[in-house]
């Protein structure tokens, strides 16, 4: 990719408070971290916005992410929230709608210690493996308008919704039985 190629834009939508503080720290480090996982130049934009549940008590992750992608002209969006997420009794660290390139990181599921590193690593894995994998980054056309990077293989079906891997604690708990 040449220097004239446009950057891939990642939007971080963060709840006020700790999620916003983490997002502001991440904004400085994420472009280089994401750049280490393949070709491409990354730009990170932050939006502080309360992430609220809908009337049914569900988190409208995809609707919030789609709106943010259109408003801020981003290629992918990650929501950072302090709302706990669970699948039954198991805490969910990250969630993704791959077709919409929208992800979510739940701070409480990261644990109390070293939240910054865990949040950074989770976002890097979420973006590089699920939201914007290498084959999609290769399809970014030089000087394409921001927010219009398409899929490299439009005829290849992609799952509409996937979950990221469980955290270290959950894998240990499952291993113990």
From TrEMBL:
Renumbered residue ranges of the record's region Disordered: 145-177
Skewed-composition ranges (Basic residues): 159-177
Name of the featured protein: Hydrogenase maturation protease
Species in which this protein is naturally found: Pseudonocardia parietis
